[in-house]
Amino acid sequence: MSSNRPADTDFDFTSIQAYAGYFKKSYKLFSCASGGAATAISECFIKNGGIVFGACYTDDFKGACFGCARTIEELEKFRSSKYINTEKKIYDDGKWVSVFSAIENALNNGQKVLFIGLGCDVGALLKTLDSHNVNHDALFTIDLICHGPTYAEVQKQYIEQLESKFNSKVTSFSVRYKKKGWEPPYVHAEFSNGQVFEELFYESDFGFAFKKYSRIACQNCQFKGENHVADMTVGDYWGCTKGMECYNPNGVSVLLVKTDKGKNMVEELKTSTEFQLYQADTEYAVRNNSNYYLRREFDMKTHRQFDEDFKKNGLHHAVVNSECYGRYKKLMRKERIKRFIPAKAVRFMKRIKSKLKHS
Ligand SMILES: Cc1cc2nc3c(=O)[nH]c(=O)nc-3n(C[C@H](O)[C@H](O)[C@H](O)COP(=O)(O)OP(=O)(O)OC[C@H]3O[C@@H](n4cnc5c(N)ncnc54)[C@H](O)[C@@H]3O)c2cc1C
Ligand code: SF4
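^ thats the input. predicted complex w/ flavin-adenine dinucleotide below
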């Protein structure tokens, strides 16, 4: 099973152009997952006469599906990451229909369409259109660098836990809330009774499930490395650190452009006065984001045990009784302490550690 690791000598970095960037206005940057590239490109696309299909939460925040935006205001529901599996359906004209059929209709009606989803979403869309002999010259696609989502049932139970705790309905929800900037991500929920709840994402039951209980099919992801089929891939520019020209403490997107349509979207983005765009080093960007090219490897024993407990006793029980919960909590505590240590001191400690190891 090839994992398309860029360490393989045949990985052709010259076939991809990398960019980095972020929204200049902080109110926009704060509402997006990383630098807001997906939203900024969508805005340009709509301004140039197209329509955009993207992922949004269902009205009760217990699941995620797709939506279609024809105006810039309608793009708001797509902002930020939903870390769960989406249903490939869209609510249109009073009924639920397949998002792929909705896109097929739009293309057949001569519309210019941008679809943003995970790699396998884009793959499934292209496969469906080809099997129906649909001309997709007017279709532009973006996929996200993908760690693999957890199951929608996790979010459903997490929202229900919160609603029961606060005795109120959730009216707004994010798992990438930038309370202190890009990192660390917080869960942020607002309730109809005016209360607000926040916790560190990776210290939450949801965060644990995202890390340890991803969709099992992702072990065999067919859309990594050179097998990304979208025109462009967008993700967090994790390689971008303090001191680099393109750094922004409130989030930076990486854009990995593969096709002429991808280049076209970048050209449109260059005309935006709202988005700060930089050229980036492809090899550096890719090597610093392993989920672009590596499939997840699961600890199947943990996954199976969690799955059984989750289905029988619910999310919280499955998390606190998971075999690796103690180790995970320790690691999270370490991460929390590390955030208070200046980056210079961390680098110094790493150098000392490495010297000791090699002496
Ligand atoms: C499950 C999942 C795992 C991810 N793993 C990684 C990773 O390992 N490394 C990394 O660098 N980046 C990862 N990302 C991508 C990252 O979280 C950001 O979504 C990406 O950087 C885009 O940020 P942005 O600011 O440009 O997007 P925004 O401007 O905030 O827009 C968000 C876009 O993401 C789309 N979207 C959100 N959730 C979903 C979903 N569940 N399915 C399909 N489309 C969705 C929306 O349609 C929207 O277009 C992941 C995203 C998801 C959903
Ligand atoms: S890891 Fe691959 S298979 Fe899993 S959701 Fe992401 S793109 Fe799809």
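The chain has a mean pLDDT of 93.
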